[in-house]
Amino acid sequence: MAGALSHIRVLDLSRILAGPWASQILADLGADVIKVEKPGEGDDTRGWGPPFLKDEHGNDTPVAAYYLCANRNKRSITVDMTQPAGQKLLHDLARQSDVVIENFKQGGLVRYGLDYATLRQINPRLVYCSITGFGQTGPYAPRAGYDFLIQGLGGLMSLTGRPDGEQGGGPMKVGVALTDILTGLYAANAVQAALIARDTTGAGQHIDLALLDVQVACLANQAMNYLTTGKSPVRLGNAHPNIVPYQDFPTDDGYMILAIGNDGQFARFCEAAGQANLSSDPRFSTNKARVGNRAALIPLLNKLTIKRTTADWISLLEKLAVPCGPINTLEDVFSDPQVQARGLRVDMPHPVAGHVPQVASPIRLSETPVEYRNPPPMLGEHTDSVLASILALSDSDIAALRAQGVV
């Protein structure tokens, strides 16, 4: 069965993470994604190491692990878009594509004739997705945007980290480039919505996605906590602003997470911990009361959880349907039987390394499943085949372009 998007071709002018994350989602769903890179250099993340992918002899390749996370199932071509001949190649590819994804600064592609206004004249059915730090409008539109910057500017770091006054207190970014990832997810959704709309209207459209917009949109309940009260939430470490107890707790050999979401779960936990009276205490009997008396409750629970190991607590509480779990390292994650049962590690053949590990797509479609067709491509690996198969260029045509430094 062909992939759900096997009829779609994507011309991917993006690099780093947000754009490539979006195009990898589309590629996993079957789209033919042509990744356009600068000759001799390519996507910046190819060099964002160590660590680097090892070849079959254990030596570093020029491919950083970072690049490998967002570029599978794509074809890489190298084109110098600063040259008129390179621009013509990209115009010709856009004419035969359904989607363009780019993450240049606002107006950055106008000089090359690769902006939406130009390409829509070439292909009115084109869905054109622009990803920038701040969008196409507003006073910040000309600025460059980076995930770390946006996590701070967009409020996420005001919510992440231990409270001021505690040891280690202060703002903290999330351990992965979450704003980029979320923007990629929104971009993939928006592209597919625009393609569906095109089925009705016959016309493509421009998608304007900003990292800042996405970050603010994903503040979720914390944004509403502010908008409904006018009071900015503060950092609570691993605690939850609206649910108690919902955080990490010390155990005899480390830490565990309790994620108690209702009063029944809290009562069962207290009974298992040998302190059933806590759940009937008016200060703690309801979630509203527990949130209001957080400072009194948490030290009491710390004294209880420290009495057993993490494994013992999990074994006990899972039988009582009390949500809990460990705090795993990534070694623990990929050794976890549930992670293994779900096949979240995939090993793909690779022309230099022999094989390359990948984190599987979480999308499970019953009739058009994700396929792992190609590993993240080497720089320019598919230049000749793409130009020959899509643009019908001859070997001599391609050789001439290569001699001119166009490809």
In short:
With 407 residues, the chain is α/β, with parallel strands linked by helices.
Question: What does the secondary structure layout of this molecule look like, with pairings?
Answer:
Elements (H helix, E strand, L loop, with lengths): L8 E4 L5 H11 L3 E6 L14 E3 L5 E5 H4 L5 E5 L5 H12 L3 E4 L13 H7 L4 E6 L14 H7 L2 H4 L18 H24 L4 E5 H7 L2 H10 L16 E6 L2 E6 L3 H10 L4 H4 L6 H6 L1 H12 L4 H10 L4 E2 L4 H6 L1 H5 L3 E6 L3 E6 L23 H9 L3 H9 L4
Parallel strand pairs: 1-2, 1-6, 2-5, 6-7, 7-8
Antiparallel strand pairs: 3-4, 9-10, 10-11, 12-13
Helix pairs in contact: 1-7, 7-8
- How much helical structure, as a percent, in the residues? 25-40%
CATH fold group of the largest domain: Rossmann fold
CATH H-level superfamily of the largest domain: Crotonobetainyl-coa:carnitine coa-transferase, domain 1
**Mean model confidence by pLDDT:** 97
Principal-axes geometry comes out as elongated
Radius of gyration in whole Å, from Cα? 25 Å
Q: How many DSSP H or I helices?
A: 18
Report on the architecture of this protein.
It is built from 18 helices and 13 strands. Helix 1 (18-28) packs across helix 7 (178-201) and helix 7 (178-201) crosses helix 8 (211-217). Strand 3 and strand 4 (60-64) form a beta hairpin. The protein is of the alpha/beta class and 407 residues long. 39% of the residues lie in helices and 16% in strands. The strands form 4 sheets. The chain has a 6-stranded parallel β-sheet, with helices on both faces. The chain has a 3-stranded antiparallel β-sheet with strand order 9-10-11, covered by helices on one side. Strands 3-4 form a two-stranded antiparallel ribbon. It has 2 domains: 9-217 and 341-403, Crotonobetainyl-coa:carnitine coa-transferase, domain 1 (Rossmann fold); 246-330, formyl-coa transferase, domain 3, CATH 3.30.1540.10. It is elongated and about 85 Å long.
